[in-house]
Amino acid sequence: MTGILALITDGFGGSGGIAQYNRDLITALAACRGTGRIVVLPRLGEAGAAPPAGVRQLKPRRNAAVYSLAAVKAALTLGPFDLVFCGHLHLAPLARLLSILLGVPLWLQLHGWEAWRVPRRIERRAAEGADLITAVSRYTRSRFLASCGVDPARVRVLPPTVAPCFGRGPKAAALAERYGLSGKRVLLTVGRLDADERRKGQDRIIGALPNIIAAFPDIVYLIVGGGDDKTRLEALAHDLAVADHVVFAGTVSSDELPQLYRLADVFVMPSTQEGFGIVFLEAAASGLRVIGGNADGSLDALADGAIGTAVDPADSSALVRAVTAGLAGDAAEPAGVARFGFANFARHVEQLLGRHLLSAAPAAAI
Amino acid sequence: MCGIAGIYAYHYAANPVEVTELCAMRDHMAARGPDGRGEWVSADGRVGFGHRRLAIIDLSEEAAQPMVSPDGSAVIAFNGEIYNYQALRAALEAKGRAFRTRSDTEVLLQLYALKGAAMVFDLRGMFAFALWDAAKHGLLLARDPYGVKPLYYADDGWTLRFASQVKALVAGGRVGRDPDPAGWAGFFLFGSVPEPYTVHRAVRAVEAGTTVWIDRCGPGRPTRYFSVSRPFAAAEIKPARIAVAPARGRIRAALFDSVRHHLVADVPVGIFLSSGVDSGALLGLMRDAGQRDVEAITLRYDEFRGHSDDEAPLAALTARHFGARHTIRTVTREEFGADLPKIFAAMDQPTIDGINTWFVAKAARERGLKAALSGLGGDELAGGYPSFSDIPRWVRLARPGSFVPFLSALVRHAIAALNGMMPLVHPKAAGFLQYAGSYSGAYLLRRGVFMPWELAGLMDRDFMREGLRRLDPLKHIAAVLEPKPKSAWSKVAALEAGLYLRNQLLRDTDWAGMAHSLEVRVPFVDAPLVQNVAADFAALPPGAGKEVVANSPSVAVPAEIQDRAKSGFKTGFATPIAQWLQQDEQVRAWQEVPRLRSANCPWARRWAYQIARA
Lengths: 366, 614
What we know:
By secondary structure, chain A is of the alpha/beta class. Chain A has 2 domains: about 1-160 and about 340-360, 3-Layer(aba) Sandwich (Rossmann fold); about 175-340, Glycogen Phosphorylase B (Rossmann fold, 3-Layer(aba) Sandwich). Chain A has helices spanning about 15-30, 65-75, 90-100, 120-130, 140-150, 175-180, 200-215, 230-240, 255-260, 280-285, 300, 315-325, 340-360, and strands at about 1-10, 35-40, 55, 85, 105-110, 130-135, 155, 185-190, 220-225, 245-250, 265-270, 290-295, 310. Chain A has a 7-stranded parallel sheet, sandwiched between helices. In chain A, strand 4 (about 85), helix 3 (about 90-100) and strand 5 (about 105-110) form a beta-alpha-beta unit. The longest helix of chain A has 17 residues, at about 340-360. The two termini of chain A are about 30 Å apart. By secondary structure, chain B is α+β, with helices and mostly antiparallel strands. In chain B, a hairpin with a 4-residue loop joins strand 6 and strand 7. In chain B, helix 2 (about 85-95) crosses helix 3 (about 105-115). The model of chain B has no long low-confidence stretch (mean pLDDT about 90). At the A-B interface, helix 5, strand 7 and helix 13 of A face strand 11, strand 12 and helix 17 of B.
């Protein structure tokens, strides 16, 4: 039976995309044949959230030094372990140390921007020592290989999964009423409003709204997500005289989000810094036409155009064309979202585990 | 002999194979295979192969590719020739296997069914192939021991694409063009891009003598089944002292055996004839093997007329000597200028060589040939390069100095600084003490176009640093010597075969030959041959290798040819590029760089810069 020690930022009891990814991955690992016990040590999140059977999550330790000591202690006292899983590049040096200490392989997971820049030397060394590195998208993999130069055969892609709660369904009238969407066509973005990064592209959509309104006067642009860029976006909408067409919904609870998707017709996020962009898949699963950027991890979520339309985020007229085509129903219905279901993900986790970590011989041994 | 391409959407998230992309990759290689084209896509759309055919063995339609096994369990796209296919076929038939064609391609399919990836150990020839194993849902990529035939792949994490040429992979439209710093640094150091790197970060070579297995998890690490230094290391294990006379006999027999195998074809096989020993001996051995009426091709450059570089007079002598039909094809600067755009288009990756092969292959095709022998590899096998004496001598000289800490680097910096003010010594001399103390360092000095400390100014500084870090030139060179032979001669032979021959000569022969739809066969580059004679060549007195090769046909190579070889004159299709670089307007970019304008700058440096700018 295989014992796994998992060092992660947050998982069970955490919130956000990375926590969701970690929960899926640990759940899939726990279900693999031969997996015995998984000990999870998070940095963040609420203590006491219930993980699946066979998984023990220790209490979160925010302080780096305390976390490191706890990790060493867990490695030495809660084993035996056959594998160290590391859920973030920042934790890789510690995870590498533990994998050397225990004499077991290391699996390193990469998400988005943290893996795009040139890594610190200590992180690069740790990554070079990893037996398997998985990236959420081809883009993250490519950026990481460009900056790090590890053996490409060891860097694989493991995309996130779209949760089954996202799907087609009737529009919730009360919710439409609350945001003033009744009888309107709705354009939707779900993403943080970050003043420093401005990478999701809500400002680009507001900038394109006058041209979109010219074709569809009954349009409402619904912006879901919180952040410090809201003031600037409001001012922009005001300056362009489209403030009446823009609704800021703020942060929405995860219970309400699936229903909110169903209120919209077209999901658009011309992002430039997307590690993957799970929201594209949530929207497509909800039956929306989907439009995203063409220069980052979004291409994976859009499956190179099979699931949604990829446009150059800097090209405003291309954005307008894609949105109006989507609103007019000219764009094809999203197809192929099912490939990102949990079953495929879990099967791939098991294959990767067998190929890279638990068998000594390569597949082509001759 | 052909061009192959393919796509395997191995990851569950990847879209199925697009036939338009597959065909775009395949048809970018139209010149590799003008006789036919084919494509195959699996029923589930997850894998597809494309093939362009130059028909040499079994010219019938039955032998067309991609070829599917009768039970549908395996599919192959294959580029190359298996010279022992008849023997393999007989052995398979003895085991009860039935064949539908007379092709070597079908032998590969049947051999795989019997042996799996271990089949590569049985193959004698030049090959690069992709084989789909439907039962395992996996793809096997394999390449011959010395890398005569090319194979490249690009893995984006979802989908794996492969092709015979880098440019074909990129032509499909889904493979990134970002430059690879290691590939470019390697080009400026060696004059060719060293495997497994290419000029594109997204593209890698299937290394010579390796296989790669790709399944639902993507490509695994390459598996090496042949190392160029192993025959030499293995030969040293034999305890017996080798007597010279029987060694000569064994070398003759082994050379004849290789030439005989390299003549297997259903079309006439010609020969590239220079004024040297190697091609002359090949011609004599072809005659011994029963070939009559051999078509021999020699290049002549106007610039060399009346000069010892002119190959034509002595080549004509050899041709008469062995009774070959001889064509002397004259190449002018005007033709070079007119062909240059086509040469750059056909040049798969930057390289400072290949121009000679371009013209001799062009001439061979003009004479109606589809296949020709080349004496390439003779110098690596018989110790014909100056490096066989230079490198061991340098190592002996420089080793003591290299033990003094910092001294060598200090000397190098001092000389480089002085050279900056006025060119006193050859730029490479500055690094003698620092590099010549080891075999890998001495090899770099001997073969290098630019030295590592000279790359600044040719490449962006950060790009250069990253390239040198990833390539790690000395480690890259030393990796060839695994397992490490003991004798100096064997070390140099392995280094030449594993670097210069593989990355420069063979690759250039492939693209420049295939651009004219001509298959070039290299009997001196043959794993069984090297395995048979590695110990014998190493046992010969210094410098005797060429003489043994010259005397290997039943009628020896003419005495004039041998005498010239003994005098140390290097032959073998030299080109007047040095002059053309001064004269042709299309190749003047090197003049932008002050140090390339200096009168004593070697032409190879100017040409390398010119190629990089093309």
